Amino acid sequence: MNSLVFGGIEGSNPLGFLAAVGAWRLSALLWGGEVRMRWIRRDGWRPELAGAPVLEEAEFCRALCEEAPWAPLGAFEALGKNLTVEPETFRPVARAAVAGATREDRRAADFAAAFGSEMEVDRNGRIRYTDLCFITGSGHQDFLGSANALRESTKAEHVREALFGPWKYRDRSLSFRWDPEDAKEYALQWENPSVEGVYSVWGANRLAFEALPLFPVAATENGVRTTGFETRERAHEFTWPMWEGWLGLDAARALLASRALQAEAPERKELAAMGVGEIFRCQRVRIGQGANFKVSFRPARAV
Known about the structure:
This protein is of the alpha+beta class. Helix content is about 30%, strand content about 25%. The protein starts with a strand and ends with a strand.
């Protein structure tokens, strides 16, 4: 098959993984279900896409930016800038998204399922929002607000940098904090990171947001959970696989939700039978004291 390798993305980086999945999902929505993706070993793990009719880098990125059906953020205006809302606010928005879903377009419903669940509330009476929501309004960083700002700011050249590299970290702010590079710990910095500010890769962050529908939030026998996350020995961790066979989106959804990935010591033979060559895992941590904290990912490890 003719294919396109996203050489700027390293699969061991959670932001890179999410950006690759987001680009793949957009491609499948734009060009149909025959678009497939796998991971190949090439100076690390790189995503390879097949089935898209456009395989020239610049034209591919232009098509994604101008023609792909990105997240319908207008459907969630009633939530405000963040997901930290009460069930009474979230429920009608989610119901409207589901009621408006069609076979041709169910994007709003998929994002509603990814944003959170009103089946359980936290100690402040708010919905259990996705574990991939690291920003909730402090420091003028807003989850949905950042998604809207990235929609306005991200151009085809930003998407090209994200997919084909190199990542230059020259874009100011607008980060979902999914890159371990965002974990600015004061004790390990030459300068005060709060003064220096955050530089990110806009294209990677915007594409990664589009991966959220593959990580829904659902009620389980152990409470509301976000797909891909598990708590082990007081560490909350995100796990994702590198699959070496060509998969469609539906097969990937099943794989990402597989309990086999979450084992403390995954069985390599079992995973090999599923086409998985490696699994990466990283901790979701809070850095800082009291109300002055930030949530980030630690660098991933292969498990």
